[in-house]
Design brief:
With about 650 residues, the protein is α+β, with helices and mostly antiparallel strands. The protein is built from 23 helices and 13 strands. It has 2 domains: about 425 residues, Butyryl-CoA Dehydrogenase, subunit A, domain 3 (Up-down Bundle); about 140 residues, Butyryl-CoA Dehydrogenase, subunit A, domain 2 (Beta Barrel), CATH 2.40.110.10. Strand 5 and strand 6 form a beta hairpin. It is globular. The structure holds ligand LGZ2M252 and flavin-adenine dinucleotide (FAD). The site of flavin-adenine dinucleotide (FAD) has 21 residues, from strand 1 and helix 12.
Length: about 650
């Protein structure tokens, strides 16, 4: 009986694939960026999937200790394979992606190395980077403290220069100055880039970065004056618990003066503080780098969740036709489509805006090398804003995909609970999303205030220069409505702030509105970049048409969800709003026959998806059934604890019933 069912489900996905109206292989290229990108990703995904060390289906059942050891084993094995196969940087980071387990290597490569590259002098880079590249040292990024994370200027750890010995003394003066959260710190790292208040000649010069050795390179024990450990279990089983987020305290630990990262400023042998001619905001450069990579990761996490929910919705059937005919695939329900297809469109939208952001970041980095700092603010606003909007949307979407999969979505074997638990801290780390959106809002307010002086905004703010036109015009339901909404919301905020007794007080009072104005500005960027993408030459039968559809879905869904903003700012009429919603329904009908093929284009292996519901072959029910028996509770037929707790209870009930 089960076998018959399985065959039917498999046929179902084959029928879905046959019904698609576009070339899936060509869509894989559009998604990945090039034929080369598809091939490398394919090779790395298969390398990981075929290696038993990278098994992850038992992860949620491991104890914290076993999970951490498993992470160490995977990282060491991955490194061995990278060296043996002489993998390129591109291949290695894809391999890391498909291993799919957060670990100390992320912070080592993702923050420790970039911090030294961005804030270290050439000499410092020459000394430290080769050690880091060969894993002769393991580093982490120790910024956040128990008392302060968002307010970086409020950090309390001190680095006091001692001219007698030419050393800095690193110290944790209070409990709240304990470093708290850095990934890789708890158990793995030998070194850290530590952010501390630089004090020299009795003056506090604020936050600076220092390279500090934490553990012995001989036996891994903490160095004198260093107290450190893991901060404890985190949300969800498996999930981010593979990471050793740590606590660290210093008791007057001495480091040589040349371990201060000295690209932005220096302390001389005599203890004089010297500021370089580079903007001090470059201290935050590592965060800009990681935020852009987090945007790229949002589309990866979202596309995984959507792939699971789309395939399962094509398999799952509930309720029949009135006359007792075959049951309906839940993917055919209009409500399922209106919840799921905007998420599918968002996965594509975030992918393309992520590619653009990566271009922007590369461009800014090249400009910085020739001391052109003109696009630094643009890079900060775009990375902060896009990080906030895409991670919040993705976290919500993963949870929505869980609900779209009904009861089975709640099982660990669906892959969705763990994906959610791993993903959700992205809304907090690398800058709490609200804090980041307020940064965008500050830049928007600055831009609005400069409009009257005739200064033309540039880059993603250029549309604000069309202020006369956008403040008055009635808009067609296109980009212009998004521009008018964003600009009018920003101008409204600026006017309201202007009425306050002082600017800071006004900003504080209006911060909830400012958040929404920032979101509107960022959504405009996402829509614009999607439109720019579909205007490009995109080869492959039907590919451009599908992307055009998804672009329209993303734009109209965003408009529908935020219709209140569009109406309140007069950027659209109620009639236009209603028409947009009508149109959305028609677009969903066009996505429907292509939905399964559109998620196939992500080209994910079953290993990477890690979901019995999202299996490529659609063989969901036998896999669910088989998976249940693997649970440790099923190792014995009669549970442990029966004799202590169940039997006496049952016997007692029996005695009572005989009374
Ligand atoms: C296990 C198996 C593995 C196997 C594999 C092995 C092999 C591996 C091979 C390869 C692997 C590759 C792996 C790579 C993985 C990479 C992924 C990385 C993973 C990431 C994991 C994340 C972990 C999390 C880390 C963290 O969270 S670190 C801590 C982050 N903290 C924050 O983000 C704090 C947020 N707060 C702030 O950013 C700021 O304090 C503030 C909110 C901006 C306020 O600052 P303040 O100075 O007080 O502000 P203002 O006065 O408002 O601003 C002053 C000024 O500066 C401008 N500004 C602000 N920020 C920036 C900026 N970032 N850039 C530029 N400018 C900035 C601001 O606009 C103001 O400008 P003006 O003066 O002009 O107005
Ligand atoms: C899984 C994980 C990994 C991490 N890894 C690292 C790491 O490797 N290295 C590292 O240094 N740090 C790391 N962190 C720390 C992380 O960067 C901080 O937690 C983050 O920046 C948020 O800061 P916070 O915890 O101080 O939050 P808080 O700022 O205390 O936020 C609490 C609340 O206050 C609100 N809030 C704060 N300020 C304002 C404001 N100005 N206006 C309005 N609302 C405000 C926030 O929106 C939030 O709702 C990690 C955190 C997590 C969860």
């Amino acid at each position: 009986m089960a076998v018959d069912h399985a065959a039917a489900e498999v046929d179902h996905l084959a029928a879905e694939r046959a019904a698609a109206r576009f070339d899936v292989e060509a869509m894989k290229i559009a998604w990945a960026g090039s034929r080369h990108a598809v091939d490398v990703a394919d090779r790395m995904a298969r390398l990981v999937a075929s290696d038993p060390v990278f098994r992850k289906d038992n992860r949620t059942m491991l104890s914290r200790k076993d999970l951490f050891k498993d992470t160490l084993r995977k990282a060491a094995h991955a490194w061995k394979r990278i060296v043996e196969l002489r993998l390129t940087e591109e291949e290695a980071s894809l391999l890391r992606q498909y291993v799919d387990q957060p670990g100390y290597v992320d912070l080592h490569w993702g923050m420790f190395v970039p911090a030294i590259k961005g804030q270290g002098t050439e000499e410092q880079q020459k000394k430290w980077l080769p050690l880091a590249y060969k894993f002769q040292i393991i580093g982490c990024y120790a910024q956040t403290e128990l008392g302060h994370g968002s307010n970086v200027q409020g950090l309390e750890t001190t680095a006091t220069f001692d001219p007698m010995t030419d050393e800095f003394v690193i110290h944790s003066p209070t409990l709240t100055s304990s470093k708290w959260w850095p990934g890789g710190l708890g158990k793995a790292s030998t070194h850290a880039v530590v952010y501390a208040r630089l004090i020299t000649e009795g003056k506090d010069y604020g936050i600076h970065g220092f390279i500090v050795q934490l553990r012995s390179l001989e036996d891994h024990s903490p160095l004198p004056g260093v107290t450190l450990g893991d901060i404890g279990g985190k949300f969800g089983s498996g999930a981010y618990n593979s990471m050793d987020n740590g606590v660290l305290r210093f008791d007057h630990v001495r480091i040589p003066r040349d371990q201060m990262l000295m690209r932005l400023s220096q302390v001389t042998r005599e203890g004089k503080y010297v500021q370089s001619d580079v903007p001090k905001q470059l201290l935050y450069g590592t965060m800009v780098y990681v935020r852009q990579s987090i945007v790229a990761d949002a589309s990866k996490a979202l596309s995984r969740a959507v792939c699971i929910a789309v395939r399962y919705s094509a398999i799952r059937k509930q309720f029949g036709s009135q006359d007792g005919g075959p049951e309906t695939q839940v993917l055919n329900y209009r409500t399922q489509q209106s919840r799921l297809f905007p998420l599918l469109a968002s996965a594509y939208a975030f992918r393309f805006v992520g590619d653009w952001l990566n271009w922007l970041y590369t461009d800014v980095t090249q400009k910085l090398e020739v001391k052109d700092y003109s696009t630094l603010q643009e890079a900060h606003a775009c990375t902060a804003g896009l990080k906030a909007v895409t991670t919040s949307a993705t976290a919500d979407a993963i949870e929505e995909c869980r609900k779209l999969c009904g009861g089975h979505g709640y099982l660990n074997s669906s892959g969705l609970p763990e994906l959610f638990a791993v993903y959700v801290p992205a809304c907090t780390y690398e800058g709490d999303n609200v804090v980041l959106l307020l940064q965008v809002a500050r830049i928007l307010m600055k831009t609005v205030s400069q409009l009257t002086s005739g200064k033309q905004p540039v880059g993603t703010m250029a549309y604000m220069g069309k202020v006369q036109h956008l403040m008055q015009s009635k808009c067609a339901v296109k980009t212009e409505a998004f521009e008018a909404r964003a600009l009018r919301m920003a101008v409204n905020c600026a006017q309201n702030i202007g009425q306050a007794s002082n600017q800071e007080e006004g900003f504080y009072e209006r911060s909830p509105d400012l958040l929404e104005a920032a979101v509107a500005h960022i959504q405009l960027i996402i829509v614009t970049k999607f439109i720019e993408k579909v205007h490009q030459d995109i080869p492959g039968h039907g590919v451009k048409e599908q992307l055009q559809n998804l672009c329209n879905v993303y734009a109209l869904y965003t408009l529908h969800k935020h219709l209140g903003d569009f109406l309140a700012t007069g950027s659209l009429t109620p009639k236009q709003g209603a028409l947009a919603n009508e149109q959305l329904g028609k677009l969903y009908a066009q996505v429907r026959p292509n939905a399964v093929a559109l998620v196939d284009a992500f080209n994910y292996t079953d290993h990477y998806l890690g979901s019995v519901l999202g299996r490529y072959d659609g063989n969901v029910y036998p896999a669910l059934y088989e998976e249940a028996w693997k649970d440790p509770l099923n190792e014995t037929v009669v549970p442990e604890g029966y004799h202590e707790y169940l039997r006496p209870l049952l016997k007692q009930q029996l005695k009572l019933s005989r009374l």
